[in-house]
């Protein structure tokens, strides 16, 4: 009997322990979808280190940094849409109180919900995407909305589109009495809404402090422009024989993509590559066309397939000159983005969307016939130098020189948020047709790639 009583006692003790263990486990049904608030501050003064050359990064003008509209979009970990908020105001740099639903037992608890958040600047036409994948596949177009003259005019009429990296956010405090400030490097700082005091989190417990929160410049989310800037900085001639001379009349850009992805499929910030003659950009169906813009020529006389077929030429990708007689002494141009820049003439400067080298499709101008065997199957965003050539007293007419813009020896094409500074020396006769390469159409050039990276606002900046 005594053994039996001891056995029953052990059974009772085991039952108590089991009940205690069960009570320590939280029933999943106890979790609620509770509102949480997100706030985020942006800056165009990015301090990343990704310069391609030894040259210092350039700030650009205040107008090139200007933010007039800022949109924050939040997605859940699986990519489904959570919420978005847009704020419009001159000089706006933050979006506050974006409300999302997070999983928690009660307000004031730290949620296990993970979010992905992006910031978009100066994108007035953005609508709520169904998912993060949908945003990545979305495109922007209409390069004519981002002209150098429109952005840098005294009365700014155009603003450069920008974006943040995709931020991965965890550690959010649930409840509307708290605000979760998202900082650079995915850091989250929760604060009490009533007094803006920081709170500390220990073992998922939230404790208010007496430290007032403010976002430092270093903690703001950096934005990158969706465009690159191409400019001709210096030009000279080095002809041999025949008393040759060249008078510069225009500088233009061809093969400027009219589309850009918001984000690449892998989450990176990648531009589009367009197969000419098709209505697909980077594999995605898009409208409207044209896929490319060019400043010159007015029509393409198809020869060697260096120029992408597009719409009518556009004036904002062409800089005309009254006639600059070039010589072996370099002609320099004044950079409109730097007030201390020295130059004899206004510089040709253009904005273009990111674009890598890509197959042109090898179709004829009317899309009906294949290109000749010697035709190129790759195109690049290209700077074209055009003017009148003379050999002694013989007028040889209008000639052009093509300069393909490449990011480096291993990375072809132009990338967003970089400046491509071109210096050219004309050594041959050029070509009467910009789409044709002749044996003596030589030009020697260098392209300096500079990080368009705003470290600080300096007094020398224009506007």
CATH C-level class of the largest domain is Mainly Beta
Count up the helices.
Answer: 4
Shape: elongated
Structural class: mainly beta
In short:
The protein has 463 residues and is mainly β.
Describe what this molecule looks like in 3D.
This protein has 463 residues and is mainly beta. The protein has 2 domains: 31-122 and 159-224, Immunoglobulin-like, CATH 2.60.40; 227-451, Immunoglobulin-like (Sandwich). Helix content is 8%, strand content 39%. It is built from 4 helices and 29 strands. It has helices at residues 2-24, 62-65, 132-137, 148-152, and strands at residues 32-43, 69-76, 81-88, 94-104, 115-121, 139-141, 162-163, 167-169, 175-183, 187-192, 197-202, 205-212, 221-222, 224-225, 227-237, 244-254, 256-257, 259-261, 280-281, 284-285, 292-293, 318-325, 331-334, 345-346, 348-353, 382-391, 394-404, 418-426, 443-451. Strands 2, 3, 5, 7, 8 and 14 form a 6-stranded antiparallel beta sheet that branches. The protein is elongated. The model is unreliable at 2-11, 13-24, 46-55, 273-286, 361-375 and 454-463 (pLDDT under 50).
């Amino acid at each position: 009997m005594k053994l039996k009583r001891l056995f029953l006692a052990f059974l009772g003790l085991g039952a108590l322990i089991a009940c205690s263990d069960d009570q320590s486990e939280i029933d999943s049904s106890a979790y609620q979808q509770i509102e949480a608030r997100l706030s985020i501050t942006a800056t165009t003064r990015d301090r990343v280190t990704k310069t391609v050359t030894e040259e210092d990064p350039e700030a650009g003008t205040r107008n090139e940094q200007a933010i007039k509209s800022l949109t924050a979009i939040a997605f859940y970990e699986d990519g489904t849409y959570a919420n978005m908020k847009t704020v419009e105001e001159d000089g706006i740099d933050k979006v506050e109180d974006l409300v999302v639903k997070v999983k928690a037992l009660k307000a004031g608890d730290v949620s296990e919900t993970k979010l992905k958040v992006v910031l978009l600047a100066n994108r007035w036409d953005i609508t709520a995407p169904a998912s993060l994948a949908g945003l990545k596949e979305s495109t922007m177009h209409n390069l004519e909305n981002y002209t150098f003259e429109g952005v840098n005019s005294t009365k700014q009429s155009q603003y450069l589109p920008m974006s943040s990296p995709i931020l991965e956010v965890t550690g959010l405090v649930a409840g509307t009495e708290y605000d979760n400030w998202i900082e650079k490097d995915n850091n989250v700082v929760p604060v009490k809404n009533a007094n803006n005091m920081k709170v500390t989190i220990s073992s998922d417990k939230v404790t208010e402090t007496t430290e007032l929160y403010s976002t430092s410049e270093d903690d703001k989310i950096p934005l990158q422009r969706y465009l690159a800037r191409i400019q001709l900085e210096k030009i000279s001639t080095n002809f041999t024989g025949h008393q040759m001379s060249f008078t510069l009349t225009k500088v233009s850009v061809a093969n400027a993509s009219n589309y850009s992805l918001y984000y690449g499929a892998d989450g990176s910030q990648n531009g589009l590559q367009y197969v000419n003659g098709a209505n697909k950009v980077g594999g995605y169906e898009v409208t409207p066309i044209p896929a490319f813009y060019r400043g010159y020529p007015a029509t393409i006389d198809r020869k060697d397939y260096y120029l992408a077929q597009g719409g009518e030429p556009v004036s904002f990708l062409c800089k005309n000159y009254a006639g600059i007689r070039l010589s072996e002494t370099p002609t320099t141009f004044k950079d409109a983005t730097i007030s201390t820049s020295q130059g004899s003439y206004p510089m040709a400067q253009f904005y273009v969307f990111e674009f890598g080298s890509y197959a042109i499709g090898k179709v004829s101008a009317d899309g009906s016939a294949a290109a000749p065997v010697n035709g190129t199957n790759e195109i690049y965003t290209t700077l074209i130098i055009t003017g009148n050539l003379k050999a002694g007293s013989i007028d040889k007419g209008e000639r052009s020189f093509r300069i393909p813009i490449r990011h480096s020896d291993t990375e072809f094409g132009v990338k967003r948020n970089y400046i491509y500074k071109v210096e050219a020396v004309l050594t041959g006769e050029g070509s009467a047709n910009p789409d044709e390469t002749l044996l003596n159409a030589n030009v020697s050039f260098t392209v300096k790639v500079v990080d368009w990276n705003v470290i600080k606002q300096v007094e020398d900046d224009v506007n």
